Amino acid sequence: MTFNLITTARAVPDQIITNSDLAKIMPTSDEWIKQRTGIERRHLASTETTESLCIDVAQQLVQANSIGPKQIDLIVVATMSPTYSMPSVAATVQGAIGAENAATLDVNAACTGFVYAMAVAHDMAVAKGYQNVIVIGGEVMSKYVNWQDRSTAVLFGDGAAGVLLALNEDGQDHYLGDAFKTFGEKGRSLMADFRPNNSPFAKPVEADSYLTMDGHQIYNFVIKKAPVVIEEVLQKTGLTLPDIDWVVFHQANARIIQQLSKKLGLTAQQCPINIDEYGNVAAASEPLVLNDLVASDQLKPGDKVLLCGFGGGLTIGASIFDY
Ligand code: ACO
Questions:
Q1: Model confidence over 74-99: pLDDT tens digits?
Q2: pTM for this one?
């Protein structure tokens, strides 16, 4: 069985907010944000929702190919900011595009979500013989952000991107392997969307529902632990970093990516960065990079791609596939 990435698509909110726009509403500057993060602008939802962005991506994926929606067997959406907890974003996408034969689920592993979603999609497809699978990362992070907190408000963006995968009988699995690690004891260093229990039977609890982050702790954690998980997936697949054409890191901060590249001995060419355009879009950030690579014809058939996501949980995941 072969598992192929057939095509990609993206949908981002029309509204673009630059660093200078943010500087008008909080004590920050274009210089600080660019220097510390690499971000220049981000797309922020005005009317768009995680659902609407993901539906847009799924419609493009189906329309760009000769398959009809009824031929989609599985839709997996990676998101930490679903429009509703129920129904799942994936179920709403399924209904909207008329993919009446598709199984659906959302995966929440924060910024590692897309790596997990690809693994879930691959393993379910192989186990069940699914032919056509859609995997989307979609987020509206702006609804979780405390717009009074400059230390986090400048970092995040909204958007969605996804891939169409197909499983065909040609004898080779193009999904080569994955590795995941969770450090749950550090989970409170990155939190969002606490919802108090307002039941008349529950004790009231005071807590911040906005996104909170210990930026330093996350930064150091990623620099230390991401290479360990990358090493594990390389060992599992029998590959080395020079075999890898593209390392698609979660776009949390350009400095993190540059430091990881240096530590691992990767070239800038191997590690595309698009955080300047989108900010940190959590589970959508890696498919947005994949979409940029496909849309600009940089990703060539046979290229080996290593995905590495990291963030809330704290979690880290890495996987390798060839295009
Ligand atoms: N504009 C101007 N000044 C600011 C801003 C801002 N937006 N935010 C903070 N500052 C100030 C601080 O108050 C501080 O001032 P002080 O020195 O007077 O106290 C100074 O800038 C330096 O702040 P630091 O927090 O030390 O800045 P740092 O260089 O660490 O950068 C950052 C902060 C960008 C958040 C960095 O720590 C980072 O990227 N961390 C990792 C984030 C990450 O990877 N998150 C995981 C993914 S998210 C997910 O999973 C959902």
A1: 999 999 999 999 999 999 999 999 99
A2: 0.96
100-128 core/surface letters (b: 16 or more CB in 10 A; e: else)? eebbbbbbbbbbbbbbbbbbbbbebbeee
Atom of ligand 1 nearest to the CA of 253: 39
Cα–Cα distance for residue pair 319/323, rounded to 1 Å: 13
Cα 190 to Cα 186: distance, rounded to the nearest angstrom = 8
Ligand 1 centroid–CA 68 distance in Å is 46
CA distance 46 to 163: 25
Task: Report ipTM (2 d.p.).
Answer: 0.94
Q: How far apart are CA 185 and CA 28, in angstroms?
A: 32
Distance 169 CA to ligand 1 centre (A): 49
Distance, CA of 136 to CA of 194 (rounded, Å) = 24
Other beta carbons within 10 angstroms of residue 311's beta carbon come to: 25
| Strand pairing category for 16-18 and 41-43 | antiparallel
Task: Decide if 50 contacts 89 (C-beta within 8 A).
Answer: yes
Ligand 1 center from residue 25 Cα (angstroms):
18
Closest CA to 249 of 212, 217, 288, 195: 288
User: Is 274 among the residues known to form the active site?
Assistant: no
Which residue among 111, 253, 274, 308 is the active-site one? Answer: 111
Go through the domains of the chain in sequence order and give each one's CATH number.
2-168 (3.40.47.10), 175-322 (3.40.47.10)
